Each structure stands twice: as C-alpha cells, then as structure tokens.
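Handout, page 2. Input:
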Amino acid sequence: MAGWIHYLVFDLFVGMWISQDADKKGVHRWMLLPCLLLTFMLGPAGLLLYFLIRSGFNRKLIQDPYAENLVH
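Output:
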C-alpha cells in the first residue's frame, strides 16, 4: 500500500509542477495533455516528454523578436 501511495503522490506532484511551469513558460495546454497522461501512467516518461517539449518551446522563444517585423 505504501508503494502505491508513493507512486500516486509522485504522479500528482509532478503533474502539478508541470502545469504550473507550463503556465509560467506560456506552453499551450493542449501540448500538456500527453505529458500529463504519461506522467500519470508511466511517471518519469511524462516528465521527460515535458522537458523535451519545453526545450523546443524555449528555442522558439530565443529567436530574434524583430525578425517577424522585417519587410522583404
């Protein structure tokens, strides 16, 4: 029983952290759905998927903000 409680607490805590961090980073909520489902079912696999999505999202944000305003 203690093992199941440990797994559920880990899954809920990590899911809560993923949701809060994604809100701070501006990650779209639809992108979180697979992460949260994997976190609930497979624990660390969902967290790994979120880190991959977040790193790709951060790369997109690092691009030059003035590049969109250039007229060709």
